[in-house]
Amino acid sequence: MPNWGGGAKCGACEKTVYHAEEIQCNGRSFHKTCFLCMACRKALDSTTVAAHESEIYCKTCYGRKYGPKGVGFGQGAGCLSTDTGDHLGLNLQQGSPKSARPSTPTNPSKFAKKMVDVDKCPRCGKSVYAAEKIMGGGKPWHKTCFRCAICGKSLESTNVTDKDGELYCKVCYAKNFGPKGIGFGGLTQVEKKE
Protein backbone atom coordinates (compact mmCIF):
# COMPACT_ATOMS: atom_id res chain seq x y z
CA MET A 1 0.00 0.00 0.00
CA PRO A 2 1.41 3.42 -0.88
CA ASN A 3 2.38 5.83 1.88
CA TRP A 4 0.56 9.02 0.76
CA GLY A 5 2.23 12.17 2.09
CA GLY A 6 3.60 10.55 5.21
CA GLY A 7 7.03 9.63 6.38
CA ALA A 8 8.53 6.44 7.78
CA LYS A 9 7.06 4.60 10.76
CA CYS A 10 8.55 5.21 14.23
CA GLY A 11 10.59 2.30 15.58
CA ALA A 12 9.03 2.78 19.03
CA CYS A 13 5.38 3.79 18.58
CA GLU A 14 4.81 2.67 14.93
CA LYS A 15 3.19 6.02 14.03
CA THR A 16 4.24 8.16 11.08
CA VAL A 17 7.44 10.15 11.58
CA TYR A 18 7.64 13.36 9.59
CA HIS A 19 10.98 14.80 8.54
CA ALA A 20 10.92 17.71 11.04
CA GLU A 21 10.64 15.36 14.03
CA GLU A 22 12.77 12.48 12.75
CA ILE A 23 15.86 10.96 14.35
CA GLN A 24 17.48 8.08 12.52
CA CYS A 25 19.37 5.31 14.25
CA ASN A 26 20.50 1.94 12.95
CA GLY A 27 18.49 2.37 9.74
CA ARG A 28 15.25 3.11 11.60
CA SER A 29 13.35 6.36 12.20
CA PHE A 30 12.12 7.63 15.57
CA HIS A 31 10.17 10.62 16.84
CA LYS A 32 12.37 12.88 18.99
CA THR A 33 10.04 12.14 21.93
CA CYS A 34 10.21 8.37 21.31
CA PHE A 35 14.02 8.25 21.15
CA LEU A 36 14.33 6.79 24.69
CA CYS A 37 16.30 3.98 26.31
CA MET A 38 14.19 0.82 26.27
CA ALA A 39 15.21 -0.06 29.84
CA CYS A 40 15.42 3.16 31.88
CA ARG A 41 13.43 5.48 29.56
CA LYS A 42 16.19 8.12 29.59
CA ALA A 43 16.20 10.50 26.61
CA LEU A 44 18.89 9.63 24.08
CA ASP A 45 20.95 11.52 21.52
CA SER A 46 23.62 10.56 19.01
CA THR A 47 26.35 10.47 21.69
CA THR A 48 24.46 8.39 24.28
CA VAL A 49 22.64 5.81 22.14
CA ALA A 50 23.73 2.19 21.80
CA ALA A 51 21.74 0.03 19.38
CA HIS A 52 21.29 -3.73 19.54
CA GLU A 53 19.34 -5.18 16.61
CA SER A 54 16.00 -3.30 16.71
CA GLU A 55 16.41 -2.08 20.31
CA ILE A 56 17.97 1.18 21.51
CA TYR A 57 19.53 1.74 24.94
CA CYS A 58 21.59 4.31 26.80
CA LYS A 59 25.22 3.19 27.05
CA THR A 60 24.85 2.27 30.72
CA CYS A 61 21.86 -0.07 30.21
CA TYR A 62 23.42 -1.52 27.06
CA GLY A 63 26.59 -2.34 29.00
CA ARG A 64 24.59 -3.97 31.78
CA LYS A 65 22.56 -6.08 29.38
CA TYR A 66 25.05 -6.96 26.63
CA GLY A 67 28.50 -6.03 27.98
CA PRO A 68 31.07 -8.40 29.48
CA LYS A 69 30.26 -9.80 32.93
CA GLY A 70 32.46 -10.79 35.85
CA VAL A 71 35.29 -9.52 38.00
CA GLY A 72 37.14 -6.61 36.45
CA PHE A 73 34.33 -5.56 34.11
CA GLY A 74 32.36 -2.50 35.14
CA GLN A 75 31.63 1.11 34.39
CA GLY A 76 35.18 2.37 34.93
CA ALA A 77 38.75 1.17 35.04
CA GLY A 78 39.25 -1.52 37.65
CA CYS A 79 35.61 -1.36 38.73
CA LEU A 80 33.54 -4.31 39.91
CA SER A 81 29.86 -3.65 39.41
CA THR A 82 27.39 -5.72 41.43
CA ASP A 83 24.42 -4.01 39.80
CA THR A 84 22.15 -6.70 38.36
CA GLY A 85 19.95 -4.26 36.44
CA ASP A 86 16.78 -5.61 38.09
CA HIS A 87 15.47 -2.09 38.70
CA LEU A 88 15.68 -1.53 34.93
CA GLY A 89 13.87 -4.74 34.01
CA LEU A 90 17.06 -6.33 32.70
CA ASN A 91 17.52 -10.05 33.31
CA LEU A 92 21.29 -10.36 33.40
CA GLN A 93 21.49 -13.83 34.90
CA GLN A 94 20.54 -15.62 31.71
CA GLY A 95 19.97 -19.32 32.06
CA SER A 96 19.05 -19.20 35.74
CA PRO A 97 15.42 -18.98 36.84
CA LYS A 98 14.41 -15.73 38.46
CA SER A 99 13.21 -16.02 42.03
CA ALA A 100 9.71 -14.88 42.86
CA ARG A 101 9.56 -11.33 44.21
CA PRO A 102 7.96 -10.74 47.61
CA SER A 103 4.61 -8.97 47.59
CA THR A 104 5.91 -6.20 49.88
CA PRO A 105 9.21 -4.52 49.09
CA THR A 106 12.09 -5.31 51.44
CA ASN A 107 13.58 -1.85 50.86
CA PRO A 108 10.86 0.75 50.30
CA SER A 109 13.12 3.21 48.48
CA LYS A 110 16.60 3.74 47.10
CA PHE A 111 17.00 6.57 49.62
CA ALA A 112 16.33 4.25 52.57
CA LYS A 113 18.89 1.77 51.23
CA LYS A 114 21.58 4.44 51.04
CA MET A 115 20.83 5.65 54.58
CA VAL A 116 21.97 2.32 56.04
CA ASP A 117 25.50 2.60 54.63
CA VAL A 118 26.14 6.24 55.66
CA ASP A 119 28.83 6.96 58.29
CA LYS A 120 27.97 8.88 61.48
CA CYS A 121 29.93 11.89 62.72
CA PRO A 122 31.48 11.23 66.17
CA ARG A 123 30.89 14.86 67.26
CA CYS A 124 27.20 15.40 66.35
CA GLY A 125 26.05 11.82 65.64
CA LYS A 126 24.44 12.77 62.31
CA SER A 127 25.06 11.14 58.91
CA VAL A 128 28.22 12.17 57.05
CA TYR A 129 27.90 12.14 53.25
CA ALA A 130 30.83 12.07 50.81
CA ALA A 131 30.52 15.76 49.85
CA GLU A 132 31.02 16.90 53.45
CA LYS A 133 33.34 14.18 54.78
CA ILE A 134 36.77 14.82 56.30
CA MET A 135 38.71 11.92 57.78
CA GLY A 136 40.47 12.43 61.11
CA GLY A 137 41.57 9.91 63.69
CA GLY A 138 40.32 7.15 61.40
CA LYS A 139 36.73 8.43 61.56
CA PRO A 140 34.55 10.50 59.21
CA TRP A 141 33.65 14.04 60.36
CA HIS A 142 31.52 16.87 58.97
CA LYS A 143 33.59 19.84 57.80
CA THR A 144 31.80 21.98 60.40
CA CYS A 145 32.47 19.45 63.19
CA PHE A 146 36.17 19.08 62.33
CA ARG A 147 37.22 21.47 65.14
CA CYS A 148 39.34 21.37 68.29
CA ALA A 149 37.33 19.97 71.22
CA ILE A 150 38.79 22.61 73.58
CA CYS A 151 39.20 25.91 71.72
CA GLY A 152 36.88 25.25 68.77
CA LYS A 153 39.52 26.18 66.18
CA SER A 154 38.88 24.79 62.68
CA LEU A 155 41.33 21.99 61.97
CA GLU A 156 43.33 20.85 58.93
CA SER A 157 45.50 17.83 58.28
CA THR A 158 48.58 19.84 59.31
CA ASN A 159 47.36 20.87 62.77
CA VAL A 160 45.08 18.04 63.92
CA THR A 161 45.85 15.60 66.75
CA ASP A 162 43.52 12.94 68.12
CA LYS A 163 43.27 11.36 71.56
CA ASP A 164 40.61 8.92 72.78
CA GLY A 165 38.38 9.54 69.74
CA GLU A 166 38.40 13.34 70.07
CA LEU A 167 40.18 15.93 67.93
CA TYR A 168 42.44 18.71 69.20
CA CYS A 169 44.62 21.38 67.66
CA LYS A 170 48.32 20.84 68.37
CA VAL A 171 48.47 23.78 70.81
CA CYS A 172 45.58 22.53 73.00
CA TYR A 173 46.88 18.98 72.84
CA ALA A 174 50.33 20.08 74.04
CA LYS A 175 48.89 22.19 76.87
CA ASN A 176 46.53 19.46 78.15
CA PHE A 177 48.26 16.17 77.36
CA GLY A 178 51.91 17.03 76.64
CA PRO A 179 54.88 16.94 79.05
CA LYS A 180 54.93 19.47 81.91
CA GLY A 181 57.82 21.54 83.18
CA ILE A 182 60.06 24.38 82.04
CA GLY A 183 59.60 24.96 78.33
CA PHE A 184 56.67 22.54 78.06
CA GLY A 185 52.95 23.24 78.06
CA GLY A 186 53.23 27.03 78.32
CA LEU A 187 55.09 27.12 81.69
CA THR A 188 58.01 29.52 81.61
CA GLN A 189 59.34 29.51 85.14
CA VAL A 190 59.51 27.19 88.12
CA GLU A 191 57.49 28.23 91.16
CA LYS A 192 59.53 28.37 94.36
CA LYS A 193 58.23 26.55 97.40
CA GLU A 194 58.32 28.66 100.58
TrEMBL record:
Organism superkingdom: Eukaryota
Keywords: LIM domain, Metal-binding, Nucleus, Repeat, Zinc
Residues of the LIM zinc-binding domain: 8-68, 119-179
Record-level GO BP terms: cardiac muscle contraction; muscle tissue development; sarcomere organization
GO CC terms, sorted: nucleus; Z disc
Keyword hit for ATP-binding: no
Gene Ontology MF terms in the entry: actinin binding; metal ion binding; structural constituent of muscle
UniProt subcellular location: Nucleus
Protein name: CSRP3 protein
Pfam families, A to Z: LIM
Key word Transcription regulation present: no
